[in-house]
Amino acid sequence: MRLARCHDLAVTTDLLDLARAGDEEAFRELLEPYRRELEVHCYRMLGSFTDAEDVMQEALLAAWQGLGAFEGRSSIRTWLYRIATTRCLNARRSARRHRPAAAPPGARPPRPTRLGEVTWLEPYPDALLDGLPGADPGPEARYEAREAISLAFITAVQRLPPRQRAALILRDVLGFPASEAARILAVTDESLTSALKRARASLRDDMPARPRSRPPDRAAERDLAERLTRAYQAGDVAAIVELFSDDAWLAMPPFPLEYQGRELIGAFLASVAFRDGRTYRLVETRANGQLAFGAFLTEPQPADMDANGLIVLAVADERIAAMTRFPASVLPRFGLAR
Questions:
Q1: Backbone region of residue 205 per phi and psi (left: phi > 0; alpha: psi in -120 to 50; beta: other values)
Q2: Helices 76-94 and 24-46 meet at what angle, rounded to 10?
Q3: Does residue 32 sit in helix, strand or coil?
Q4: pLDDT on residue 35
Q5: Cβ-based neighbours of 1, under 8 Å, separated by 6 or more
Q6: Using CA atoms, how far apart are residues 220 and 198, in angstroms rounded to an integer?
Q7: Fewer CB within 10 A of the end CB, N or C, for the chain?
Q8: Residue 6's pLDDT band (boundaries 50, 70, 90)?
């Protein structure tokens, strides 16, 4: 084990020396073990797949330009997290507020239970999470990997002030020691502890209001997927509503409307999703560690299926605890096109 560590350190040192000398291939090789986990970190920080991609590119450029200033006082991984986290904080401060989208023409949605705040939320494909290198949380992490990528968690942390969000993700999701997390954020240990305490308190208040995704029995999940697919294909709103729990939520960013309970969810589906006799074909996929479907409109245009959106489900006790519907623009990320 010690010999392996020494070898890894020597390889890293050699790559670092080459990269500092301007070798771009050495720089790419140096960063490759951390690239995917840094992308997921940016996504957790920003809640938007698109924003995370943009900020990640900025962070990589900043790392390349700042490599000469890296003094080796921390690991390469910690240094990269500091750059990426700083870019995420700057991006959120400078971002214009996303304008909520309007309801589609001809739709008359019912009055919502509430208006959602995180209208910029986007899903993350499970295909990009498979075999994530170096992403095992440290021993001080409080959240399991599945919970920390769920839509419920991503939505909840977006409501935290940016530095509280960063402190919680670094400590409770990634498991960085307190001193290391403080260095990443360039704050004192006391400031980090204070921000983390407030973030944990806010999340305790927020998370119970939004159902968490727990993996059900695989056979039960398969049965639910088949029943939902048949009901969408038949345009059977009653059959779809039957699959929801009594206190389930329906959300649809970038639309701010959010509905709780079977009655309101059924009213929305009938007046918007299935209006004018619409029916859909569902194509199964996965997003944020959750069961998901690409939805394609088949009626009233049966000759040409029209990409309609992505549906992501939180499943608990063999029922749908939350359904989040995203626009069709996210489908290509999941290998689903018109």
A1: alpha
A2: 50
A3: helix
A4: 93
A5: none
A6: 38
A7: N
A8: very low
Where do the CATH 3.10.450.50 domains begin and end in the chain?
218-334
Cα gap 252→322, rounded to integer Å: 11
CB atoms within 10 A of CB 189: 12
CB burial string 66-95: b at 16+ within 10 A, e below: ebeebeeeeebeebbbbbbbbbbbebbeee
Check pLDDT > 90 for residue 261: yes
CATH number of 1-93: 1.10.1740.10
- Helices (DSSP H) in 47-144: which residue ranges? 49-66, 76-94
Tell me which CATH code domain 218-334 carries: 3.10.450.50
DSSP letter assigned to residue 181: H
> How far apart, in whole angstroms, are the C-alpha atoms of residue 87 and residue 183?
15
Is the per-residue pLDDT at 1 higher than 60?
A: no
Residue 327, SS3 per DSSP: strand
Q: How far apart are CA 52 and CA 45, in angstroms?
A: 8
> What percentage of the chain has pLDDT greater than the value 90?
69
Are 7 and 13 in contact by the 8 Å Cβ rule? The answer is: no
Lowest mean pLDDT segment, chosen from 105-114, 223-232, 258-267, 272-281: 105-114
Does pTM surpass 0.85? yes
Q: What is the pLDDT of residues 270-310, one digit of tens each?
A: 999 999 899 999 999 999 999 999 999 997 765 556 889 99
Cα first-last separation, the chain: 51
DSSP string, 117-141: S-TT----BGGGTTT-TT-PPPTT-
Residues of the chain with CATH 1.10.1740.10: 1-93
Q: Say how far apart CA 36 and CA 125 lie, in whole Å.
A: 13
Closest CA to 84 of 13, 170, 178: 170
